[in-house]
Amino acid sequence: MPAGDGKLETGKRFRHVSLQETIRFPCSCQSTQCQLTYPDYHMEPQSSQYHIVTGPVPGPPDSSHHSLISAPWFTNEPVLCSMMPQDLHVPVAGICVPQAMHPQQFHEGLSEFTSHLTQPASSTVVCNVSGGGQVVLVNPCEPEPMFLTLKSASQHRDNSPNQEKDVSVLGNPSQLPQQQQAACSLYESRDQTANMQLPVPRSQTVGTLYETKSRKPCHCTRSLCLKLYCECFAYGVMCSNCDCSNCHNNAEHEMKRQKAIESCLGRNPDAFRSKAAGGKSGGVKGWHNKGCNCKRSGCLKNYCECYEANIKCTSSCKCVGCSNFLNSSEMGVKEKFVNGNKSPVSVISPAVVEAVCGCQLARAKEAEREAQSPSQAEHMVLDEFGHCLTQIVVAIFQNKAH
DNA sequence: GAGTTTGAAACT
DNA sequence: CAGTTTCAAACTC
Fold first, then answer.
1. How far is the CA of A212 from the C1' of C9 (A)?
2. pLDDT per residue as tens digits for the range A12-24
3. Can you tell me where the transmembrane regions are (predicted)?
4. Buried b (16+ CB within 10 A) or exposed e, A261-294
């Protein structure tokens, strides 16, 4: 939604919750409940888990709401999405709810929501309640949500000893005025050494990235930091406090940088998207969009992108001698199944459900991106579901065979 | 810290 | 698309 049109971009709130607090939401299948992750989000090494809650969020008293529902498969009902800590860079665009809600209603709803959470509410819900950079900070310990500008929110965060310092922003930062973007420390990484510059606007297709991952300084010497060899560049950020030489990944060489970005996107339109979906929540933690090609590391060293992202290798990988497939807990599940103590359904672990839902969501977003008709989008999602189901069935039979 | 190994990215 | 080269991070000593 364009900023500054006087309407609110509402409907997104999130908080940190513990690993065990995965909240389920009604999936499109209607008959079951699914957990959902967002495969396009980026990794943040953190132990907690985020949930995005789409639903009515009160704006300032003088504001109005309007619908941002951008795809027919999204629901107006509040949706709790299990979201991996690694996954935050930008929320699902356009999930929003049209009607306004009285602040008291909101607070009651929030209380109900937080009452289901076991973790003490030291964390903060951050809502982008307008495209113009206004946010609401909601600490369930506090009686009222606090409406702030991004800048003041940042100050509030910094001054609040009880709050985590890793507040992130919901809402598309590229929609904010440039000054606010520059001034907004909410966009900064937890790792203060990492500068989280704004990505190239979506029109230049890097824009879905909004990296919050801690990032080490790069040491590039020959790539000018303008190739994907450079981690900073690959993350969509400019180099800062790096040990690179002859760096062109900075504002000084913005033209070259843009050309390099275009070049990368020309080779691979998804070059700046996260390769990993899912997260470090235990068990199977996600999947690598492309898969690794390791040959000698057994996928058990950080050379392996899957291993490094703390995710398991999948059929997408072309690795040789892979040992990065089952951990002990999943072995336990497998053994129970093989021993006949559990039904085959037990292999459909929460992680698998997460992965399936993630795939479906990815397809939905793809359909949205391609401006497909609702029926076509539905078809694509169902098609993906069928594909996932096939893989699950194959896995079940493979387990039986062992 | 220097040298080696590794696999992704880039190139042909 | 496959093979090769380049590159920088991960790793070892």
1. 20
2. 333 322 222 222 3
3. none
4. beebbeeeeebbbbbbbbbbbbbbbbbbbebbeb
- The set of strand C positions with any atom below 7 Å of a protein CB reads 6-11
| Model pLDDT, residue A148 | 42
What is the spatial distance, in angstroms and rounded to an integer, between the CA atom of A174 and the C1' atom of C8? 30
Contacts of strand C, CB cut-off 7 Å? A 216, 218-223, 225, 227, 229-231, 301-303, 308
Whether residue A195 has pLDDT greater than 70: no
Q: Where are the domains of chain A?
A: 12-186, 199-272, 285-323, 327-402
- Please give the model's pTM, rounded to 2 decimal places: 0.42
Say yes or no: Cβ of A268 under 7 A from any atom of strand B: yes
Q: Which residue would you say has higher pLDDT here, A78 or A370?
A: A370
What are the backbone angles phi and psi of residue A393, rounded to the nearest 5°?
-60, -45
- Of A139, A135, A146, the closest CA to residue A114 belongs to A139
> Which two three-digit tokens encode residue A272?
């700046």
Contact A353, A328 (CB under 8 A): no
